[in-house]
Amino acid sequence: MNKTQDIAGFREKLPARVVINVENTDDGLWAKVSTPDGTLSNCYAQAANAVELVTMVNDAIFTHFEVPEDVRSCIGYYVPLSDAHVQWEEMFNKLVSMEKQLDLQGDSETTLTLKKTVC
User: Fold this and answer.
1) CA atoms of 69 and 18, how far apart (whole Å)
2) DSSP tag of 106
3) Average per-residue pLDDT in the chain?
4) In this structure, what DSSP letter does residue 115 have?
5) Domains of the chain
6) Tens digits of per-residue pLDDT, 66-116?
7) Residue 84: which residues within 8 A CB-CB, separation 6 or more?
8) Cα separation of 56 and 31, whole Å?
9) pTM of the predicted protein model
10) Which of 15, 53, 71, 94 could anchor a disulfide with 47, C-beta 3.0 to 4.6 Å?
């Protein structure tokens, strides 16, 4: 197998999104890493600050999935997303789903509801 195939294989093994539960302790920050569907468990990271925690979380995930160090930088990194980003992504996915449904049904009318949020 060549390096390009290795990278593609490891990308397939990694979850698209992870959930991080962070606890602030006297020793710094502790993070429990999991996935929305629960397929990743018993994965933890510790760091002195939030910036370092992102690096340590990525290291913990790559270690959990046995990704070799020489291909890690080619695979990409998990980065924190704001709540607003996640909301926009969910809305976009719903719109795409609606469009597919309309295409299948041949309908031309649908209703969208404005969801009010506090800023």
Assistant:
1) 20
2) T
3) 85
4) P
5) 3-75 (3.30.160), 81-119 (no CATH)
6) 999 988 988 988 988 888 887 888 888 888 888 777 777 765 565 566 666
7) none
8) 9
9) 0.71
10) 53
